[in-house]
Amino acid sequence: MTAQSKNHSFYQVITDDFSRVNEIIRRQLVSNVPLVEQIAEYIISAGGKRLRPLLVLLAGNAVGKKGDDLCLLAGLIEFIHTSTLLHDDVVDASGLRRGRSTANAIWGNAPSVLVGDFLYTRAFEMMVKLDSMPIMQVISHATRIIAEGEVLQLSRVRDASTTEEIYMEVIRGKTAMLFEAATHSAAVLGGAPEEQCEALRCFGDALGVAFQLVDDLLDYQGDISELGKNVGDDLAEGKPTLPLIYAMANGTEEQSAIIRKAIQRGEGEEFQLISEIVKETGALDYTAKLAKDYAERAIRFLDQIPDSIYKVAMVDLTKFAVERVY
């Protein structure tokens, strides 16, 4: 967890649980193969916001679930997320994440993929310890959807014909699904009533969509010192994100042609010009408004959850998700 994150109230209400989750993560990184531990420790120690395990803890506590099982669930969710980061950086040929060189940039693609596999399988070993078939169903379903979302995104790289509908399908799979799995599985583990389980599932989905929309927004107006990655990476990788899709649909023929060409070539040389276009066409405002709409939708789902400091923290977290600059 970053120093920036520690100051937020939504972390402070579960400080002790978060410490226990970190202890679980450290214990589960143990391997007989030194390189596995070295790479896994490197990416885990980078910290990040740890939003997904945070969501597990907040959602679980909000429905009255506490204890070691909840912390174990939070840890395995973080392992799944970390494994996807390792794989994503290889697929995207990324060289920077969270302000540091990526694992693949240091050790190469093959070790990064294999250690990602290690973290995936370790997560499922941890899941078995929970001895809950409903949890297994939620998590296994989520990992399949995440994989499909990543493949769908890959199939759309350099495809300037990608629609907003397809884009939303991509981000629901590759990002929102794990947010949803975090809150849903916590509710299931806590034995919450069906209506609360469904409310928390929908909350996680809407929050995840809002979070990814802001991520894609920050790719055009973020600060590298805050983001820990290069701005313009999505464009350089030929990813047709919502700001680009909206700008192509609402800009002039010349503006649309410039963006289309940049996506098809997967080049970032025109980044400054395209940044101006997405701003002029209202694409950034449109994306920001949609993110805010999803955040408000997420908060409304919490009406089904009993009032508590944990529910308040989830509301605060949702607001942070759309107001953040990193």
Automatic annotation (TrEMBL):
Reactions it catalyzes: 5 isopentenyl diphosphate + (2E,6E)-farnesyl diphosphate = all-trans-octaprenyl diphosphate + 5 diphosphate
Superkingdom assignment: Bacteria
Family from the record: Belongs to the FPP/GGPP synthase family.
Cofactor(s) needed: Mg(2+)
Keyword Ribonucleoprotein among UniProt keywords: no
GO molecular function: all-trans-octaprenyl-diphosphate synthase activity; metal ion binding
Keyword vocabulary terms for this entry: Magnesium, Metal-binding, Transferase
First-tier enzyme category under EC: transferase
CDD domains xref list: Trans_IPPS_HT
Protein's name in the database: Octaprenyl diphosphate synthase
EC number(s) from the headed UniProt entry: 2.5.1.90
Xref: InterPro entries: Isoprenoid_synthase_dom_sf (IPR008949), Polyprenyl_synt (IPR000092), Polyprenyl_synt_CS (IPR033749)
Function: Supplies octaprenyl diphosphate, the precursor for the side chain of the isoprenoid quinones ubiquinone and menaquinone.
GO biological process: isoprenoid biosynthetic process
